[in-house]
Predict the structure.
Amino acid sequence: MTPKPPPPPPGTTSRKVPRWVYLVLFVVVVALPFLGGLKSRTSADKEALATLVDMGAEPINRPLRDDELDMPIQTHDGKSTNLRTLMSSGDTIILHFWASWCGPCMQELPEIGKLAQALSGRRVQVVSVSHDDAWAEADAALVKTNGKAQPEPGVWLREIEGQSGDDSKMLRVRLGTMQLPETYILVDGQALVRLIASQPWSNPRLLRALERLAPAR
């Protein structure tokens, strides 16, 4: 039999901490410093990011390092690009990591395709980076889930090292991603938030937040 814990010292009481106390601590420790670091953002940007955090996004709010900006990512024709090039247009980047061998990724892929369509005409690029070892694997997954190997208007890329290559040369590892799927919101050379696991991309509230971060062209 497990012994009972000793009673509290005289003059004290044992009470559960109210839930609102944890909420206040979260706002003070996480949310306020995060939003306070967005002084250069518009009020619409701040509102959108607050919504994303409220929906479970992890605040990051840091500049991308040179090694992250310049890490090569393979295009479908075998050439390479990088985040610096993709961000040179000034567009918001929704950077999504996935793989054909990841069950939740496969379930989410149709929603990623729809997200790119829903945000078309805005200053945003939905960039999906596969961690498959070859384009044939990624293409087959995209045909199965989206009807074609390179569904438009999304940007579909592949980690050159694939699944089994050198971790130090993988963009997702440099960013800190150790599981799939995972998505980052990148604006003006900064990683603002990270969304871990599958997301409800068709959720109107989430979509409105992303639209605020991606003004019309």
